[in-house]
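As the next step, I wrote out a protein sequence along with its fold in token form, included below for the reader:
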Amino acid sequence: MSKEDRAVHRLPNPLRDEIVAEIDRATELHGEQDNLPDSVWLAIATEEVGEVAEGVLKEGWGKGDTEHTDEEIVQVIAVMTHWLMIRRARVGARRKPS
């Protein structure tokens, strides 16, 4: 995969839509999360990564569902993206994205 294909602006629209939809779903389910401290965001992200690990292990044992694992990966990306958006809004962008 080329550098250009990996660039964020080249992120396929369906995947970008999945990530945004997951952020919206989590906000609807749990309410606004702008006031959560970073330690809570880290705990949420770690729990989601654990679910990906479980899915990958189950796939390796022939008992997993690739689609479910992919959904868990989207959740990890959504949590991390949402957390970063909130951090930047809360503390301001300390550096400009390159």
The CA atoms of residues 55 and 69 lie 5 Å apart. Helices lie at 3-6, 13-30, 38-60, 66-91. The chain has a mean pLDDT of 87.
